[in-house]
């Protein structure tokens, strides 16, 4: 079909594939002006394995169904496929956590998500410490650390206190705010998509969104498999795109980990 034909036309674009095309780059964003300019930075200026993200304005995150967890009713580690708009897998993410944390801390558990490319090379590490997520505990809210490559911190995702709306900021390696993410008052979805809008710091301009896609009553009630779409400007800094992938994982843990919450 047409999609397969287009897929065959991109053999060297997928991370981990041989002879990837490095011709398209973006310059880092300016946190003060909140404007992103496309350009051609020197070779090697992008974190290894993230150059492909510079070509994407849509990143699809698909959680894999764990049949053993469904049958036994136990909390298993989360696994995600990260795809482009053609449905081609570009990265694979696996949660690392201990059974005790998954059982007793549930969705608040501390964990590490390791993201690898198609060659099995780890390109992004997402660290999540054990923290609260209640508006009654504003001093110890959720936070993620993003490393790309592993060992090099490139950003953070931090929950901000708000009595009505879920709000988060994407920060650079110095913990300076770059973007805001504002979710809806109710994240149940009511049989539709749930959108978290990505805004500039002053919240005057929406530049993208992270959407939890509605996948039907049966899938949402009887499985924990969630599907997300990250819509961003194509020339957004790849480090910020990596942080938004981390934010997508955080939203899944906080709002959609249990199937009934995804309704």
Automatic annotation (TrEMBL):
InterPro entries: Scramblase, Tubby-like_C. It holds the Pfam family Scramblase. The keyword Lipoprotein applies. Residues 26-37 have a biased composition (Polar residues). Its cofactor is Ca(2+). Residues 1-42 are annotated as: Disordered. It comes from the Eukaryota. GO terms for cellular component: plasma membrane. One of its GO terms (molecular function) is phospholipid scramblase activity. The keyword Cytoplasm does not apply. Keywords: Calcium, Lipoprotein, Palmitate. May mediate accelerated ATP-independent bidirectional transbilayer migration of phospholipids upon binding calcium ions that results in a loss of phospholipid asymmetry in the plasma membrane. Belongs to the phospholipid scramblase family. This is Phospholipid scramblase. The lineage of its organism: Eukaryota, Metazoa, Chordata, Craniata, Vertebrata.
């Amino acid at each position: 079909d047409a999609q397969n034909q287009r897929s065959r036309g991109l053999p060297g674009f997928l991370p981990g594939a041989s002879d990837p095309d490095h011709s398209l780059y973006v310059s880092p964003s300016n946190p003060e002006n909140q404007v992103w300019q496309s350009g051609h930075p020197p070779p090697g200026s992008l974190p290894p394995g993230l150059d492909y993200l510079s070509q994407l304005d849509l990143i699809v995150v698909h959680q894999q169904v764990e049949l053993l967890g469904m049958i036994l009713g136990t909390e298993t580690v989360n696994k995600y496929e990260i795809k482009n708009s053609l449905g081609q897998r570009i990265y694979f993410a696996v949660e690392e956590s201990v059974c005790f944390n998954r059982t007793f801390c549930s969705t608040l558990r501390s964990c590490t998500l390791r993201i690898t490319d198609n060659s099995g090379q780890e390109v992004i590490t997402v660290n999540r410490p054990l923290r609260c997520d209640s508006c009654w505990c504003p001093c110890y809210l959720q936070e993620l650390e993003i490393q790309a490559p592993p060992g090099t911190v490139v950003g953070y995702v931090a929950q901000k206190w708000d009595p009505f709306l879920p709000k988060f900021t994407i920060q650079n390696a110095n913990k300076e705010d770059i973007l805001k993410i504002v979710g809806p008052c109710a994240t149940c979805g009511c049989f539709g998509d749930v959108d978290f809008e990505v805004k500039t710091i002053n919240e005057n301009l929406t530049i993208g969104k992270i959407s939890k896609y509605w996948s039907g009553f049966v899938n949402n009630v009887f499985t924990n498999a969630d599907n997300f779409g990250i819509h961003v400007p194509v020339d957004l800094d790849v480090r910020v795109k990596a942080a938004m992938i981390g934010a997508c994982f955080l939203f899944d843990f906080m709002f959609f980990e249990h199937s009934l919450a995804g309704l």
